[in-house]
Write a structure and sequence with these properties.
It comes from mine drainage metagenome. The protein is mainly alpha-helical. The chain has helices spanning about 5-20, 35-65, 65-90, 95-110, 120. The protein has a domain at about 55-123. It starts with a helix and ends with a helix.
């Protein structure tokens, strides 16, 4: 084997060995020092969810009509639009940012502070 081929063979072999060594899986540790606390927090969250949050959510659905729930949903969606606009700009999606900005302006003015969503009907 001539020197350039030998050098190439050594480099390729070294790359393969390093790649395979990088893919080696370390055994997972089974110990979780916070396991007892995590179980207590999970149990607490389950109780709060079952005895507080779910009854409130079911009562909300029972006492409000679909139209009222739609208004509330539109209002909160409108509050989140500025976050979406910033996200679009950070991803250099200027068209998406412009669309979301237009939706925010229309919903906040014509849509009465976001209660209604006129751009959805315009599409």
């Amino acid at each position: 084997m001539n020197p350039p081929k030998k050098a190439l063979w050594i480099v390729v072999t070294a790359c393969i060995v390093l790649f395979l060594a990088g893919c080696a899986i370390q055994p997972a540790k089974q110990e979780d020092p916070l396991q007892s606390m995590n179980r207590k927090v999970f149990a607490f969250n389950e109780k709060v969810d079952n005895y507080v949050v779910k009854p409130i959510a079911k009562g909300y659905v029972k006492i409000t009509s679909a139209n009222v729930r739609s208004l509330v949903s539109n209002f909160y969606s409108n509050l989140l639009l500025p976050i979406s606009i910033v996200n679009d700009l950070l991803q250099a999606r200027v068209g998406g940012a412009a669309e979301d900005t237009g939706r925010l302006v229309v919903n906040s003015t014509i849509g009465l502070a976001g209660l209604f969503d006129p751009p959805t009907n315009w599409a």
